[in-house]
């Protein structure tokens, strides 16, 4: 039956994951109470026809008005009990559904924040957001519905049958025919409809995403004269979608009329079957009428279940997407036995040994055989073409991903053995995209170091060449930052992101093409200030601009994922043709107006 | 029981209902609780949208009427059977005849209902398909100005959410609301025929339950609003922290974010529960009222039977009616909301379909002589985006066949607009743009655009394979041709690192590629097109200089015999141009070669100089 245990069924298929069964069983007492309430309220509503049978049989047949009043009062009490019990049941059901959703959301949230970068890219941020918001909501709705509506159907079916048998055993045999027919109708229709609904959801998403692309790419489509092709592409998706929608819609449209017909014909058959026994006074007419009510009650609950089941596929898809995410093993899991980093005073040595990284299934590695080391106070420049794997090197140092081959050590400890909090406290990282968190400027700067005082923040801003524009803001450090930093220009965002890294008391700084939005003058000033500010720290600067890295102690030249040079600028100019060529391509950096 | 479903449907409607995998929708977006501005007009448009199927719609309405008549008189006729059972002139054959009549009525009612539901389903789904098709076709006909005037998200929301919402609600409403409304009318009529006092009791019950629902819904409204606010805040937090996931990890801010999330998550659950306390009262209360009406019918009915005012069969029919009417009544409320929502969406969809369209290509189409030489002239071109803000007043320049023309100037000078005018993304207000001496306004847009390969500032890739993306302008290109173009544009190297090489499907518009890689792909796309005119709008801004140098060599080859327009910030890109057009605030200030403009020591020289100091 499609009660709440249908969702936990997922759990059987994925041992090890925080199972649905476990999640639901956490509320076993609440669920037990809910079940009792539902049984109670169903019983109360089933008593009503039975009392009305008494009214007819003793009251009318016996011409006894006081009996009518008596049973009428009993009916009133039953209705009152049912009111209280069903309100309680609905409330408990909602509570359990909301609490489960709350914990699901928390688990998804925690899971996402432990994923490796490549895993996040694999899922895509958008889909992760959907899983944490919309998908959880779908599951919550389904649970709520399951506990308050769908669960009634089996109780009503069983209870109704018991009451029917109590009224008259012989007539009840009719239910042996009609109930299976009802079940069959629902079963066949839903079993056929569920895959259709799933497909329809996918096709609808497909149609919508094609449209999204077409709106966003309107210029390209027009410039390349591909309007007809896009129409065809859309038309095909649209036709597919409509085909599925038509079929699933027809199945669902069949449900109500056929169930109604089955129930109505059952009531006709009841009168026919009971007729001779009523005439022979073996069956009271009130019992027959009560029987009609039972059939109606059973049917209504079954029909309601049928209607709710329509929503099941969507919730199941959502549940599956959540399960998939929660079951994903974390590529950059925490160490089982974390090893401590050397004390701060010692400084940190970073060491790459034959490090390689590739996406599973890819023909070529993104980077391969990278070996270098970097001591405290040293600066390593990394230069290479677009897509040569420069950023990947930084991502590996920050342990956003783990290397596929080789190993990286920091202070002599393998990165995989360092607790994330230890690692975080030693690293200051400026990403390629200067994403700022909303709040005040002070909030956004304190990301890595919540205890940083104002003086420290101003010092960081000063090095990052951001003092002038922050000071010019009417509210200074308390000025608001919009999500992502959208209320600042690209260059300002980049400088705030640098200040944010500097505000961490870090010993290893990573700059991922972090000066690209700055003009040459600011770039130069910033790098000069940086040298003074991070004297004891090790620094890795990734850049496409020769000017940004030519003063580094050593420069790592990456080409197509491989290391083709490592050394200071002058040496590389002699020995590394790729580097020399890059420098030549930027030979007149003073002519660059970026 | 009957009220149960109504409440649940209502709750579902309040939940954000976006396509499961198409990203989060703004909480409490346009759909929730929207009201149409002009309901009558929207209805008329929907009626028109049914087009040729209007007859079918009317037929299905007639079928509903038939079906409801059947299910209304059914219980009454079944009551006759019961009366026959307890009466003195009972014969089995009379009973069977009566039961056969009832059975036939019921079967007829259900068959009509089935037929009606199928018809409506097909009608509405086909209308949905036609609307989606019309909306998509509209895309190709609206001018870009229209797109500029509203955010993409807004347009998309109308295309997707609104059409979806409209179709879903219309189907529900058309297949059920009519049936329910008719059922209520039919059953009430039957009740009145049977017994006025009992019908009054039933009506009283209906009035009370409607009143109670209204009161509770009103009281719950602010709680729901609060729930939506909390949902919105939580979603914003999720979106923000997921987008900045790497930062949170590297900066060790997990604990703080977790704590913030836990607080908001708990707050949401609590607020939702508070809203639910009230909502959970609706359904049991409705059921309670319905039960009271049922009890009243049984008790008063029984007393009336004793006094001879009613027959037993009539009381039985009444009991069935009371049960039959409960569900539709409780659902009509939510149906009204659905109608409103459907109409509001319909209004937004029709607004989209009514958007002004581009002028057709001129009737007397001038033909371009083939092959196109690529002689482009801008003659006193004037253009403005909005009437009160002229962008170009009088722009003139010329690119001879085979020349490379660079357009330079500070941000906002109108460089991109200029090339957009060349491909007629926008029509000009005065002057003329000529291609091989022909005014482009007199050419068919397709002829004009066939002559131009364009690399736009936005690096648009679609969900499809790398191959298909590169071959976008030439779907018939072979794999060899695609790879050759990819090699020349340095796309080949990184394509090989992808899991399926050229058959890798780029999801989310190639979201996993870097901006530089995307730019290279779009350049390869233009390369493959092999058109007489090449337009490069900041085509290599995110590509590293060394790769750029390499690409420029390839582009220099490509430019041979082609007229090219290049917009770039990097002077290294521009220096070799045959002519440089230096623009400021919509005006051409200087034209000439690099050397000439440097010698002039004007704006071009300053822009370059400014980079130095």
From TrEMBL, chain A:
Q: Which GO terms describe its cellular component?
A: plasma membrane
- UniProt entry keywords in alphabetical sequence: ATP-binding, Cell membrane, Membrane, Nucleotide-binding, Transmembrane, Transmembrane helix, Transport
What single Pfam family name could you report for this chain, choosing any that match?
ABC_tran
- Cited SUPFAM superfamilies: ABC transporter transmembrane region (SSF90123), P-loop containing nucleoside triphosphate hydrolases (SSF52540)
List, alphabetically, the InterPro entries matched: AAA+_ATPase, ABC1_TM_dom, ABC1_TM_sf, ABC_transporter-like_ATP-bd, ABC_transporter-like_CS, P-loop_NTPase, Type_1_exporter
Compartments (UniProt record): Cell membrane
Give the domain of life.
Bacteria
Membrane spanning residue stretches: 29-51, 71-94, 145-165, 171-194, 285-312
**What topology in the membrane does the UniProt record assign?**
Multi-pass membrane protein
* Segments forming domain ABC transporter: 350-585
What's an example of a GO molecular-function annotation for this chain? Answer: ABC-type oligopeptide transporter activity
Q: Where does this chain mainly localize? A: membrane
Q: Give residue ranges for domain ABC transmembrane type-1.
A: 32-314
This protein is called what? Answer: ATP-binding cassette subfamily B protein
Automatic annotation (TrEMBL), chain B:
Places the protein is found: Cell membrane
Enumerate the InterPro entries for this protein. Answer: AAA+_ATPase, ABC1_TM_dom, ABC1_TM_sf, ABC_transporter-like_ATP-bd, ABC_transporter-like_CS, P-loop_NTPase, Type_1_exporter
> Which of UniProt's keywords are assigned here?
ATP-binding, Cell membrane, Membrane, Nucleotide-binding, Transmembrane, Transmembrane helix, Transport
Q: Which residues form the ABC transporter domain?
A: 376-610
What's one GO-annotated cellular component?
Answer: plasma membrane
Domain spans labelled ABC transmembrane type-1: 58-341
Q: Does the keyword Lipid metabolism apply?
A: no
List all membrane-crossing ranges: 55-78, 98-120, 173-192
Q: What is its main location?
A: membrane
The entry lists its GO molecular-function terms as: ABC-type oligopeptide transporter activity; ATP binding; ATP hydrolysis activity
List, as start-end ranges, the regions of compositional bias called Low complexity.
Answer: 17-34
Location of the region described as Disordered in the Swiss-Prot/TrEMBL record? 15-37
Per the record, membrane topology reads: Multi-pass membrane protein
Q: Which domain of life is it from?
A: Bacteria
Q: Which PANTHER family match?
A: ATP-BINDING CASSETTE SUB-FAMILY B MEMBER 10, MITOCHONDRIAL, ATP-DEPENDENT PERMEASE MDL1, MITOCHONDRIAL
Protein name per the record: ATP-binding cassette subfamily B protein
């Amino acid at each position: 039956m499609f009660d709440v245990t249908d969702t936990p069924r997922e759990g059987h298929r994925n041992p090890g994951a925080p199972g649905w069964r476990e999640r639901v069983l956490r509320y076993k007492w609440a669920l037990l109470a809910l079940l009792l309430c539902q049984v109670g309220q169903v019983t109360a509503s089933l008593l009503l026809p039975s009392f009305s049978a008494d009214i007819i049989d003793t009251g009318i047949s016996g011409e006894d008005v006081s009996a009518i009043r008596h049973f009428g009062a009993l009916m009133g009490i039953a209705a009152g009990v049912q009111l209280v019990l069903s309100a309680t049941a609905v409330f408990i059901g909602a509570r359990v559904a909301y609490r489960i959703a709350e914990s699901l959301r928390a688990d998804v949230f925690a899971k996402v924040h432990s994923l490796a970068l490549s895993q996040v890219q694999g899922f895509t941020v958008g889909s992760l957001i959907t899983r944490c918001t919309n998908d959880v909501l779908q599951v919550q709705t389904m649970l709520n519905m399951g506990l308050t509506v769908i669960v009634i159907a089996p109780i009503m079916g069983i209870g109704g049958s018991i009451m029917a048998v109590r009224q008259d055993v012989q007539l009840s045999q009719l239910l042996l025919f009609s109930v299976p027919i009802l079940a069959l109708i629902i079963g066949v229709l839903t079993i056929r409809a569920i895959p259709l609904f799933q497909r329809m959801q996918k096709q609808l998403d497909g149609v919508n995403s094609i449209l999204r692309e077409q709106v966003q790419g309107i210029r390209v489509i027009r410039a390349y004269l591909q309007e007809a092709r896009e129409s065809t592409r859309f038309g095909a998706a649209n036709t597919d979608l409509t085909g599925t929608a038509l079929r699933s819609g027809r199945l669902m449209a069949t449900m109500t009329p056929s169930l109604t017909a089955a129930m109505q014909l059952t009531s006709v058959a009841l009168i026919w079957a009971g007729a001779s026994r009523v005439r022979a006074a073996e069956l009271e007419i009130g019992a027959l009428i009560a029987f009609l009510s039972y059939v109606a009650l059973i049917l209504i609950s079954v029909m309601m279940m049928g209607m709710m089941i329509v929503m099941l596929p969507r919730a199941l898809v959502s549940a599956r997407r959540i399960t998939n995410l929660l079951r994903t093993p974390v590529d950059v899991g925490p160490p089982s036995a974390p090893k401590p980093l050397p004390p701060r005073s010692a400084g940190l040595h970073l060491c790459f040994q034959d490090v390689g990284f590739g996406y599973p299934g890819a023909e070529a590695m993104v980077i391969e055989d990278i070996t270098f080391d970097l001591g405290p106070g040293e600066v390593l420049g990394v230069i290479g073409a677009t897509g040569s794997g420069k950023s990947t090197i930084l991502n590996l140092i920050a342990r956003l991903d783990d290397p596929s081959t080789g190993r990286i050590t920091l202070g002599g400890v393998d990165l995989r053995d360092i607790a994330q909090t230890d690692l975080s406290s030693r690293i200051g990282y400026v990403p390629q995209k200067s994403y700022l968190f909303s709040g005040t400027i002070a909030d956004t700067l304190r990301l890595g170091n919540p205890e940083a005082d104002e003086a420290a923040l101003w010092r960081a801003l000063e090095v990052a060449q951001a003092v002038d524009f922050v000071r010019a803001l009417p509210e200074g450090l308390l000025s608001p930052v919009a999500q992502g930093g959208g209320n600042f220009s690209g260059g300002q965002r980049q400088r705030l992101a640098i200040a944010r890294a500097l505000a961490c008391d870090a010993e290893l700084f990573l700059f991922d093409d972090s000066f690209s939005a700055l003009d040459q003058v600011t770039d130069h000033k910033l790098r000069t200030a940086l040298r003074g500010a991070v004297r004891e720290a090790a620094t890795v600067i990734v850049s496409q601009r020769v000017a940004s890295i030519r003063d580094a102690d050593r420069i790592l030249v990456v080409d197509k994922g491989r290391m083709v040079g490592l050394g200071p600028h002058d040496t590389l100019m002699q020995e590394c043709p790729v580097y020399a060529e890059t420098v030549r391509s930027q030979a007149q950096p003073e002519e660059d107006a970026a | 029981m009957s009220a149960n479903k109504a409440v649940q449907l209502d709750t579902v409607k309040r939940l954000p209902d976006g396509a499961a995998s198409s990203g989060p929708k703004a909480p409490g977006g346009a759909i929730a609780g929207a009201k149409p501005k002009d309901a009558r007009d929207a209805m008329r448009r929907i009626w028109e949208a049914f087009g040729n199927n209007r007859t079918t719609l009317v037929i299905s309405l007639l079928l509903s009427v038939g079906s409801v008549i059947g299910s209304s008189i059914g219980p009454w006729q079944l009551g006759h059977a019961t009366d026959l059972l307890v009466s003195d002139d009972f014969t089995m054959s009379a009973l069977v005849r009566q039961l056969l009549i009832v059975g036939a009525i019921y079967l007829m009612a259900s068959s009509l209902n089935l037929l009606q539901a199928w018809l409506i389903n097909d009608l509405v789904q086909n209308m949905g398909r036609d609307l989606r098709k019309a909306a998509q076709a509209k895309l190709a006909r609206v001018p870009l100005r229209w797109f500029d005037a509203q955010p993409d998200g807004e347009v998309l929301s109308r295309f997707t959410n609104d059409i979806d919402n409209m179709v879903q609600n219309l189907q529900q409403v058309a297949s059920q609301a009519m049936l329910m409304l008719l059922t209520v009318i039919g059953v009430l009529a039957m009740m009145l025929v049977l017994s006025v006092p009992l019908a009054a009791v039933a009506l009283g019950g209906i009035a009370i339950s409607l009143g109670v629902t209204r009161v509770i819904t009103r009281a719950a409204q602010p709680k729901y609003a609060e729930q939506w606010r909390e949902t919105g805040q939580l979603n914003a937090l999720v979106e923000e922290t997921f987008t900045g996931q790497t930062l949170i990890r590297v900066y060790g801010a997990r604990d703080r974010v977790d704590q913030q999330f836990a607080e908001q998550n708990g707050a949401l659950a609590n607020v939702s529960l508070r809203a639910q306390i009230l909502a959970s009262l609706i359904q049991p209360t409705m059921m309670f009222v319905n039960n009271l009406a049922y009890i009243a019918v049984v008790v008063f009915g029984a007393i009336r039977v004793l006094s001879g005012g009613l027959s037993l069969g009539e009381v039985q029919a009444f009991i069935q009616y009371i049960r039959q009417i409960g569900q539709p009544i409780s659902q009509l409320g939510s149906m009204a909301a659905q109608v409103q929502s459907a109409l509001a969406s319909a209004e937004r969809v029709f607004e989209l379909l009514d958007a002004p369209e581009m002028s057709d290509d001129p009737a007397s189409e001038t033909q371009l002589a083939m092959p196109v030489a690529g002689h482009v002239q801008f003659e006193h071109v004037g253009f403005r985006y909005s009437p009160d803000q002229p962008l170009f007043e009088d722009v003139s320049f010329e690119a001879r066949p085979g020349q490379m023309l660079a357009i330079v100037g500070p941000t906002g000078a109108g460089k991109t607009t200029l090339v957009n005018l060349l491909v007629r993304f926008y029509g000009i207000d005065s002057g003329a743009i000529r291609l091989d001496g022909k005014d482009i306004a007199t050419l068919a847009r397709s002829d004009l655009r066939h002559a131009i390969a364009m690399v736009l500032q936005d690096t648009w890739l679609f969900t499809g394979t790398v191959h298909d993306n590169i071959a976008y302008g030439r779907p018939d290109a072979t794999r060899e041709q695609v790879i050759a173009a990819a090699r020349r544009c340095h796309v080949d190297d990184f394509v090989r690192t992808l899991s399926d090489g050229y058959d890798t499907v780029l999801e989310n518009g190639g979201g996993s590629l870097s901006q530089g890689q995307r730019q290279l792909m779009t350049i390869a796309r233009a390369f493959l097109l092999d058109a007489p005119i090449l337009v490069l709008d900041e085509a290599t801004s995110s590509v590293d200089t060394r790769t750029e140098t390499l690409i420029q060599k390839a582009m220099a080859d490509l430019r041979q015999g082609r007229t090219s327009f290049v917009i770039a910030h990097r002077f290294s890109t521009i220096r070799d141009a045959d002519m440089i057009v230096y623009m400021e605030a919509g005006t051409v200030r200087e034209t000439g070669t690099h050397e000439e403009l440097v010698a002039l020591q004007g704006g071009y020289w300053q822009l370059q100089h400014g980079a130095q100091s």
